[in-house]
Amino acid sequence: MKLIGSITSPYVRRIRLLLSDEPYEFINLDIYGEDRDELRRTNPTLKIPVLIDGDQELYDSRVIARYLGQKLGLDALTWDQENQLTLIDGANDSAVTMLLSERSGIDTSQDAMFYNLQRERIMATLRTLSAMVEAGQFKQWNYPAICLYCLVDWLDFRDLVDFSGVDSLLAFRDAHADNSWVSVTDPRK
Fold it and tell me: What's the pTM?
Protein backbone atom coordinates (compact mmCIF):
# COMPACT_ATOMS: atom_id res chain seq x y z
CA MET A 1 0.00 0.00 0.00
CA LYS A 2 1.06 3.55 -0.69
CA LEU A 3 -0.35 6.58 1.15
CA ILE A 4 0.12 9.96 -0.49
CA GLY A 5 -0.34 13.11 1.53
CA SER A 6 1.42 15.66 3.68
CA ILE A 7 2.78 15.50 7.19
CA THR A 8 0.72 18.48 8.34
CA SER A 9 -2.69 17.30 7.08
CA PRO A 10 -5.05 16.11 9.84
CA TYR A 11 -6.85 13.95 7.25
CA VAL A 12 -3.62 12.21 6.28
CA ARG A 13 -2.54 11.84 9.89
CA ARG A 14 -5.73 9.99 10.80
CA ILE A 15 -5.01 7.40 8.08
CA ARG A 16 -1.37 7.12 9.16
CA LEU A 17 -2.56 6.41 12.70
CA LEU A 18 -5.10 3.88 11.44
CA LEU A 19 -2.27 2.17 9.52
CA SER A 20 0.13 2.25 12.48
CA ASP A 21 0.55 -1.54 12.62
CA GLU A 22 0.49 -2.12 8.86
CA PRO A 23 3.30 -1.94 6.30
CA TYR A 24 2.85 0.89 3.81
CA GLU A 25 4.85 3.50 1.96
CA PHE A 26 4.21 7.14 2.87
CA ILE A 27 4.84 9.80 0.24
CA ASN A 28 4.94 13.30 1.71
CA LEU A 29 3.98 16.00 -0.79
CA ASP A 30 4.22 19.78 -0.63
CA ILE A 31 0.73 20.13 -2.10
CA TYR A 32 0.77 23.94 -2.31
CA GLY A 33 4.29 24.13 -3.68
CA GLU A 34 6.73 22.10 -5.69
CA ASP A 35 4.65 18.88 -5.61
CA ARG A 36 1.42 20.41 -6.94
CA ASP A 37 1.84 18.71 -10.33
CA GLU A 38 2.28 15.32 -8.61
CA LEU A 39 -0.96 15.92 -6.72
CA ARG A 40 -2.71 16.76 -10.00
CA ARG A 41 -1.52 13.45 -11.47
CA THR A 42 -2.51 11.52 -8.34
CA ASN A 43 -5.98 12.84 -7.50
CA PRO A 44 -8.31 14.78 -9.80
CA THR A 45 -9.96 16.43 -6.77
CA LEU A 46 -6.55 17.89 -5.76
CA LYS A 47 -7.04 16.65 -2.19
CA ILE A 48 -5.14 14.41 0.16
CA PRO A 49 -4.88 11.69 1.33
CA VAL A 50 -4.75 9.23 -1.53
CA LEU A 51 -4.35 5.51 -0.89
CA ILE A 52 -3.10 3.19 -3.61
CA ASP A 53 -3.41 -0.52 -2.94
CA GLY A 54 -2.55 -2.50 -6.07
CA ASP A 55 -5.00 -1.33 -8.73
CA GLN A 56 -7.32 0.31 -6.17
CA GLU A 57 -7.02 4.10 -5.75
CA LEU A 58 -9.00 5.90 -3.05
CA TYR A 59 -9.28 9.68 -2.78
CA ASP A 60 -10.83 10.62 0.56
CA SER A 61 -9.93 9.87 4.18
CA ARG A 62 -13.41 8.63 5.04
CA VAL A 63 -13.50 6.30 2.03
CA ILE A 64 -9.94 5.16 2.75
CA ALA A 65 -10.85 4.39 6.36
CA ARG A 66 -13.86 2.37 5.26
CA TYR A 67 -11.73 0.46 2.76
CA LEU A 68 -9.03 -0.21 5.38
CA GLY A 69 -11.65 -1.25 7.91
CA GLN A 70 -12.87 -3.96 5.54
CA LYS A 71 -9.36 -4.96 4.44
CA LEU A 72 -7.99 -5.14 8.00
CA GLY A 73 -11.09 -6.68 9.56
CA LEU A 74 -11.84 -3.75 11.84
CA ASP A 75 -15.25 -3.35 13.45
CA ALA A 76 -17.71 -1.49 11.23
CA LEU A 77 -18.64 1.95 12.49
CA THR A 78 -21.97 2.39 14.22
CA TRP A 79 -24.36 5.13 13.13
CA ASP A 80 -23.39 7.10 16.26
CA GLN A 81 -19.74 6.84 15.25
CA GLU A 82 -20.60 7.93 11.70
CA ASN A 83 -22.30 10.99 13.23
CA GLN A 84 -19.19 11.65 15.34
CA LEU A 85 -17.12 11.62 12.15
CA THR A 86 -19.54 14.00 10.48
CA LEU A 87 -19.08 16.43 13.39
CA ILE A 88 -15.30 16.08 13.32
CA ASP A 89 -15.14 16.48 9.54
CA GLY A 90 -17.44 19.51 9.62
CA ALA A 91 -15.24 21.33 12.12
CA ASN A 92 -12.10 20.24 10.30
CA ASP A 93 -13.38 21.37 6.90
CA SER A 94 -14.37 24.79 8.27
CA ALA A 95 -11.00 25.18 10.01
CA VAL A 96 -9.13 24.31 6.79
CA THR A 97 -11.24 26.92 4.98
CA MET A 98 -10.28 29.50 7.61
CA LEU A 99 -6.58 28.62 7.41
CA LEU A 100 -6.46 28.71 3.61
CA SER A 101 -8.36 32.00 3.58
CA GLU A 102 -5.91 33.53 6.05
CA ARG A 103 -2.98 32.26 3.99
CA SER A 104 -4.59 33.90 0.97
CA GLY A 105 -4.50 37.25 2.73
CA ILE A 106 -8.18 37.37 3.66
CA ASP A 107 -9.16 38.77 7.04
CA THR A 108 -11.28 35.94 8.45
CA SER A 109 -12.10 37.95 11.57
CA GLN A 110 -14.24 40.32 9.50
CA ASP A 111 -17.98 40.41 10.08
CA ALA A 112 -18.84 38.52 6.90
CA MET A 113 -21.52 35.85 6.79
CA PHE A 114 -19.23 33.19 5.29
CA TYR A 115 -16.57 33.51 8.01
CA ASN A 116 -19.15 34.00 10.75
CA LEU A 117 -20.72 30.68 9.70
CA GLN A 118 -17.34 28.91 9.74
CA ARG A 119 -16.52 30.19 13.24
CA GLU A 120 -20.01 29.29 14.47
CA ARG A 121 -19.79 25.77 12.98
CA ILE A 122 -16.36 25.14 14.50
CA MET A 123 -17.27 26.24 18.01
CA ALA A 124 -20.74 24.64 18.06
CA THR A 125 -19.18 21.38 16.92
CA LEU A 126 -16.32 21.58 19.42
CA ARG A 127 -18.81 22.13 22.25
CA THR A 128 -20.75 19.05 21.14
CA LEU A 129 -17.58 16.97 20.83
CA SER A 130 -16.38 18.18 24.23
CA ALA A 131 -19.64 17.01 25.80
CA MET A 132 -19.21 13.65 24.08
CA VAL A 133 -15.69 13.33 25.48
CA GLU A 134 -16.97 14.18 28.95
CA ALA A 135 -19.70 11.53 28.53
CA GLY A 136 -17.03 8.92 27.75
CA GLN A 137 -17.92 8.44 24.08
CA PHE A 138 -14.27 8.50 22.94
CA LYS A 139 -12.73 6.19 25.57
CA GLN A 140 -11.74 3.51 23.07
CA TRP A 141 -8.81 4.31 20.71
CA ASN A 142 -10.66 3.61 17.45
CA TYR A 143 -11.06 5.50 14.20
CA PRO A 144 -13.47 8.17 15.55
CA ALA A 145 -11.11 8.79 18.52
CA ILE A 146 -8.15 8.98 16.13
CA CYS A 147 -10.01 11.54 14.01
CA LEU A 148 -10.93 13.60 17.07
CA TYR A 149 -7.33 13.48 18.25
CA CYS A 150 -6.08 14.66 14.84
CA LEU A 151 -8.63 17.49 14.72
CA VAL A 152 -7.86 18.82 18.20
CA ASP A 153 -4.10 18.55 17.81
CA TRP A 154 -4.21 20.21 14.38
CA LEU A 155 -6.41 23.08 15.64
CA ASP A 156 -3.92 23.62 18.45
CA PHE A 157 -0.91 23.28 16.11
CA ARG A 158 -2.38 25.90 13.76
CA ASP A 159 -3.61 28.06 16.67
CA LEU A 160 -7.05 28.32 15.07
CA VAL A 161 -9.37 28.24 18.08
CA ASP A 162 -9.59 29.25 21.70
CA PHE A 163 -10.21 26.06 23.67
CA SER A 164 -11.81 27.92 26.61
CA GLY A 165 -14.96 26.06 27.56
CA VAL A 166 -13.94 22.96 25.60
CA ASP A 167 -10.88 22.13 27.68
CA SER A 168 -11.86 18.46 27.81
CA LEU A 169 -10.77 18.25 24.16
CA LEU A 170 -7.23 19.25 25.09
CA ALA A 171 -7.31 16.81 28.02
CA PHE A 172 -8.43 14.08 25.60
CA ARG A 173 -5.56 14.94 23.26
CA ASP A 174 -3.03 15.03 26.09
CA ALA A 175 -4.20 11.64 27.39
CA HIS A 176 -3.02 10.07 24.13
CA ALA A 177 0.33 11.86 23.89
CA ASP A 178 2.21 8.70 24.95
CA ASN A 179 1.00 6.72 21.93
CA SER A 180 4.17 6.10 19.90
CA TRP A 181 2.43 6.63 16.54
CA VAL A 182 0.99 9.92 17.77
CA SER A 183 4.56 11.08 18.27
CA VAL A 184 5.76 9.65 14.94
CA THR A 185 2.99 11.49 13.04
CA ASP A 186 3.30 14.81 14.93
CA PRO A 187 3.24 17.61 12.30
CA ARG A 188 5.55 19.74 14.43
CA LYS A 189 8.48 17.40 13.76
Answer: 0.95
